[in-house]
Amino acid sequence: MTATQLQIGPHTVTPPVVLAPMAGITNAPFRTLCREFSGGKGLFVSEMITTRALVERDAKTMRLIHFDGSEKPRSIQLYGVDPVTVGKAVRMIVDEDLADHIDLNFGCPVPKVTRKGGGSALPYKRNLLRSILREAVTGAGSLPVTMKMRKGIDDDHITYLDAGRIAVEEGVTAIALHGRTAAQHYGGTADWDAIARLKESVPEIPVLGNGDIWSADDAMRMMRETGCDGVVVGRGCLGRPWLFGDLVAAFEGGGAPARPTLREVAAVMRRHAELLAEWLEDEERGVIDFRKHVAWYTKGFSVGSEMRKRLAITSSLAELDALLAELDLDQEWPAGADGPRGRTSGRNRVVLPDGWLDDPYDCAGVSADAELDTSGG
């Protein structure tokens, strides 16, 4: 029987659905949209925060860790490569009451991160992973610490089962696994069998599955096929924040969701842009930031390439309103509008530091500048 709730330390997440951190996407406005559609149910994680930037109180980072008063629990994802800095960041979060839950990112496959030994490259160094987790869990005190990772670097360097066992031994509360290697990036098909194997390997704590969840049906199928305790949704909600409402309905036994018309989608687009403008305290910056979402929201609808281009160069809410009004807003939800969005490329080679694969237990070789302002996983 599919679980209907997830326990993350003292926090009960019902249904067991988590918004994956995505750079430049899962800011406070987007989290607000997703929570509105879910009726406040689920767990919505911040953009990835680098521990060094947090400790140094970088202005952009301090904005990113702001939570709306209605966000409960407040969930921050941290990315770090140095155990000491990770520990300082976690203690800062605790001492200043900045969050209620801390997630650690070991899934980023971006070359400029892996070439420094960070992200999805890091779990290959078992002792370094253990040190980071130990510092985080110790510093967190009563706050639950979870982690997100990939299967490994490539098919010849699979790390997720070892990493999962280390996480359990160091007191991590739950693990999310993206069923791809770093080499796959976002290409190909996610390996849900790996999620099932991880669940069998670490029965002591919840395991969440991530990868290729484009609809509520996909989420329910992943739960059934893998036995995982919850799902993490990333690219599936790009331009589809109402997916969280669909997920709540599915877990609560509701019927098939009503698909929005273009008029309803346009209303969500307008609200998204307005929320960004309010958050950034600058209408032009907010609308410009919204531009990246246009293609995702309009995918499958008869909008036309020229109109998409015009929508993607708007710089005011009034301009956005005028263009949305020109659309054929009575269009029904188009066939094929679900499915892959966002990054879908794959890679054959992961860029790593020289000699990185020589010794999986040697902690040397991770540079402090691996902590870059990027995310993913």
Task: Characterize the structure shown.
Its EC number is 1.3.1.-. It is an enzyme of class 1 (oxidoreductase). It comes from Streptomyces sparsogenes DSM 40356. This protein has 377 residues and is α/β, with parallel strands linked by helices. It folds into two domains: 6-257, Aldolase class I (TIM Barrel), CATH 3.20.20.70; 262-325. It has helices at 28-38, 51-55, 59-64, 83-95, 111-114, 126-140, 160-169, 192-201, 216-226, 243-251, 262-280, 283-290, 294-298, 305-311, 317-325, and strands at 6-8, 11-13, 17-19, 43-50, 75-79, 101-106, 145-150, 152-154, 157-158, 174-178, 207-210, 230-233. The strands form three sheets. The chain has an eight-stranded parallel barrel with strand order 3-4-5-6-7-10-11-12, surrounded by seven helices. The protein has a two-stranded antiparallel sheet with strand order 1-2. It is globular and about 60 Å long. The two termini are 29 Å apart.
Please provide a brief summary of the model.
Pfam families: Dus (PF01207). The protein has 377 residues and is of the alpha/beta class.
